[in-house]
Amino acid sequence: MEIKATKATVDALLKNKNLSDEELIALLKTDTLDEYLFACADKIRRLNYGNEVYIRGLIEISNYCKNNCYYCGIRAGNAKLSRYRLSKEDVLSCCREGYRLGFRTFVLQGGEDMFFTDDIVCDIVSSIKSEFPDCAVTLSLGEKSFESYVKYRNAGADRYLLRHETADNEHYGKLHPETMSLENRKECLFNLKKIGYQTGSGFMVGSPYQTYETLLEDLRFLQSLKPDMIGIGPYLTHQDTPFNKFENGSLALTLRLVAILRLMFPYALIPSTTALGTINPNGREMGLKAGANVVMPNLSPTSVRKLYSLYDHKICTGDEAAQCIVCLASRVESVGYRIVTDVGNVKK
Ligand code: 5AD
Ligand code: FES
């Protein structure tokens, strides 16, 4: 007999009970409990973080990438894309602007671009840390060796984001070429933790070939990793990828997962992602109400924002981009939270 999810299932999560596989899958499939689920997630979020929303200034340092993930618009095989790299001076001026606006975390994200050698990355990181000693630096530069991660950490990097994308081996193989492996991705994540980074992982919701069973594996993997940060967003189609015939992921399922993650990981830093804001004009507000407590406005120079095109129709790429922080602050307040000027470490 198939198990049904009820309010009691949500209550069990709220009390920090570990649900069975069947219960979790039932909850993922149920759309009638969302209101209650989001209210419970918000309760836990407020218990741990009050109404505070942390901001991270996202600086997209390069759209060159040696990889060829089938879902991603900046994949090496996309010959239509014009490529750019930011210089250290570009990055520092983004940070200066960000600092003035109240950012105390800078996230340097980029494709796996071999131009950025360890020495170059370390030089940028240590320059930011010496000019802004009260700020955290987060890196999101993909899979690197243990030694490289150690070097970045010694240069001053505090946090690292590396989504696992899917914790199911077969599914991983359908999203990535053979040159990439889930095993290596997982090893990187455990290395990052071992080295002492505040570590973030996550996955796309509704990526091609995803099932409720693979989502269950994602949740179980996160339980074993115990990340400080968990980023999820709907899969969104990009016209110049092999997956361009696949539909976008579901907003509703993404929000349900945000709430489930908040209940399973009460202390986690969970962003309401740009992908959520892209699939629905109010997606980020909805993400906050479902338990997210971080937003990551774009601090990249406006001239390159369109080029960092992981998926189609990405928001905040036009002339309005300089206004993002003002826009987001009012969006955050419209749903009962407030942006704070704080380095925003995990509370535990
Ligand atoms: N749709 C949604 N998210 C995507 N990402 C990459 N391509 C897409 C897409 N088409 C996500 C991946 C990656 C993060 C930086 O962006 O999860 O880890
Ligand atoms: Fe970028 Fe609103 S957050 S324009």
Structural commentary:
- This protein is of the alpha/beta class and 348 residues long.
- 43% of the residues lie in helices and 12% in strands.
- The chain has helices at 7-14, 21-29, 34-49, 88-101, 118-131, 146-155, 169-175, 182-195, 212-225, 251-264, 274-279, 283-289, 302-305, 324-334, and strands at 52-55, 57-62, 105-110, 136-140, 159-161, 198-205, 229-234, 294-295, 338-340.
- It has a six-stranded parallel β-sheet with strand order 2-3-4-5-6-7.
- Helix 2 (21-29) packs across helix 9 and helix 3 packs across helix 10 (251-264).
- The model has no long low-confidence stretch (mean pLDDT 97).
- The structure holds 5'-deoxyadenosine and FE2/S2 (inorganic) cluster.
- Residues 297, 316, 320, 323-324, 327-328 line the site of FE2/S2 (inorganic) cluster (FES).
The N- to C-terminal Cα distance equals 39 Å
Strand line-up of the largest beta sheet: 2-3-4-5-6-7
What's the SSE pattern? HHHEEHEHEHEHHEHEHHHEHHE
Low-pLDDT runs: none
Quaternary organisation: single chain
Bound molecules: 5'-deoxyadenosine, FE2/S2 (inorganic) cluster
What structural class should be given to the helix and strand makeup? alpha/beta
Mean pLDDT: 97
Radius of gyration: 19 Å
DSSP strand count = 9
As a percent range, the share of helical residues equals 40-55%
What overall form do the CA principal axes indicate? globular
Strand fraction equals 5-15%
Q: How many helices in DSSP terms?
A: 14
Sheet bearing the most strands, described?
6 strands, parallel
